[in-house]
Amino acid sequence: MRSVFGIVALAGLAVGRPAPEPLLLEARAVTVVDQETGFTFSETKAAATLSANIVFRIATPANVPAGQPYDIVLQVVAPNSVGWAGLAWGGSMVRNPLTVSYANGQRTTVSARWATGHSTPQAYSGATFTLLSKGNKSNGTHWQLTAKCTGCTTWTGSSGAVRIDPRDSKRLGYACAAAKPSNPSSPTSSIPVHDVYNYITHDFSAGANANFAALLTQNGISEVPTGNATLFDN
Ligand code: HEM
């Protein structure tokens, strides 16, 4: 486990792309404790260019009851050269929740979208986001989103109900564009098509938080999260 001291620590993030590897990658997520928000995240780095990564971090409640929906906290750290970064929770662009985030001055905007084809995704009401009071910022090199999502890990896809197992690894899709959204303060801003799309395998089990609800409270979110284990554990 290692600690991360905000996005300043990520100024040296740019790394070369790894050597060629087999198509079916093992999950390479690592556990990261974010000192600013207190959440333990599972982290996966995704290549935005040959020399820059987007960092996707996901925190889950520990001990989610089997089959139950659950909230997550998503943290995205992107170089300022990234105009928008998208995560496709079902591992492809079509018929699964898409989370798009972008810088908005010193703050960040997050947007829930859904695509029915390989064309501009529409707003999606099945996933809702609340920005945490900490962890949303930008500096001279990076911007960072930190938001709770209700509805990112369960949805109805092309083949019926889907639920991401919080104890397992899952292939996710991602995409990004250098060009910026036209109206960065709006979650429904139009976005330019991606320059890059690819896939990551994310280990959800590496981001479990026994004190998920308490951490949300510390970060300005007081409602009880969906799938909060403390509702069920005695
Ligand atoms: C302006 C909005 C967008 C347009 C016009 C668009 C268009 C397209 C097109 C035409 C392809 C097929 C490319 C090919 O076959 O070579 C594609 C693939 C893909 N897009 Fe998008 N896209 C948009 C937004 C997004 C967003 C927000 C995401 C979120 C992660 C995303 C994720 C992907 C992924 C993962 C693929 C790979 C194919 C797949 O897995 O379905 N796209 N997109």
From TrEMBL:
Signal peptide extent: 1-16
Segments traversing the membrane: none
InterPro entries linked to this entry: Cellobiose_DH-like_cyt
Stored Gene3D superfamilies: Cellobiose dehydrogenase, cytochrome domain (2.60.40.1210)
Superkingdom: Eukaryota
Cellobiose dehydrogenase-like cytochrome domain: residues covered: 33-213
Keywords associated with the record: Signal
Name of the protein in question: Cellobiose dehydrogenase-like cytochrome domain-containing protein
Species annotation: Ampelomyces quisqualis (Powdery mildew agent)
